[in-house]
Amino acid sequence: MLGFGLSIEPQLWALVFVMIRVGAAFIAAPVFGNVSVPLQVRVALAGAIGVLVLGMHNITPPPQVFAVSTFLAIAAEALVGLALGFILQIAFAAPLIAGELIGGSMGIGFANMVDPNTGRSSPAIGQFLSILLTLLFLSIDGHLVLVETIVKSYTALPPGAAWLAPGQLRDIALFGGYAFLAGLLLAPPVGFLLLCLNLVVGMISRSAPALNLFSIGLPASLAVGVIAMAAAFPAMGDYIMVIVREGLEATRSLVIG
């Protein structure tokens, strides 16, 4: 029943209720939440996964739509979905932090481009690393793992008991620090060589004060930065895989514990 003497098909109301958690997760999660993904596609995916959830779990939606208890249940469902997607979004922020550090050391911190994930401007190097992380995320079926985690969340956090505990909210906040740690650990392979270059340039400037450092330092920083990134790609790719796995594991631990 909708309330006010109105009615709705029970199966349709159950599907709409299930789609709230799935849709909230897709809004906050990377790849699914990209601004380039049409809203119709997100709704269709949420409906398809909702049908899957209804086939695997016995979901009983609130009896009335226009009721305070129903609004609280919807808020709880949206909170769980947003938390599942937000954890992965935190992990995807690590390459942007590394790009800020590397770009500033190379002297191209002003080089920005539009991020297709968010539609906002971001550093070019950070955008490149973010695209690399997205490709690796898709290559290990991370999007399928996310969908599986959302479906399993209905077992660990069934509707009606879906409010996140204070400990789970604390874990989400603490995982936010992992983005800064991962970004700092992703930048050193290139940042160390650029630091050594800056030390050399500094010694040259002390020995030859009349030398124009802008005509030497910036091209040297660009050349060393590009060569260092090309040489560090294997190590950076391996650590990006670690970031992806850590994000998926944090999402899974939020649901399973």
UniProtKB/TrEMBL annotation:
Query: What are the entry keywords?
Result: Bacterial flagellum, Cell membrane, Cell projection, Cilium, Flagellum, Membrane, Transmembrane, Transmembrane helix
Which processes are annotated in GO (biological process)? Answer: bacterial-type flagellum assembly; protein targeting
Where does it mainly reside?
membrane
Q: List the InterPro entries.
A: FliR, T3SS_IM_R
Annotated localization: Cell membrane; Bacterial flagellum basal body
> Can you tell which superkingdom this protein's organism belongs to?
Bacteria
The membrane topology noted for this protein in its Swiss-Prot or TrEMBL record is: Multi-pass membrane protein
* TM regions (residue ranges): 12-32, 39-59, 65-87, 94-113, 125-151, 172-201, 213-235
GO CC annotation terms, alphabetical: bacterial-type flagellum basal body; plasma membrane
Mind telling me which NCBIfam families this protein's record contains? fliR
PANTHER family in alphabetical order: FLAGELLAR BIOSYNTHETIC PROTEIN FLIR
Its job: Role in flagellar biosynthesis.
- What's the family? Belongs to the FliR/MopE/SpaR family.
According to UniProt, the name of this protein is: Flagellar biosynthetic protein FliR
Q: Write the lineage as a comma-separated list.
A: Bacteria, Pseudomonadati, Pseudomonadota, Alphaproteobacteria, Sphingomonadales
- Gene for this chain: fliR
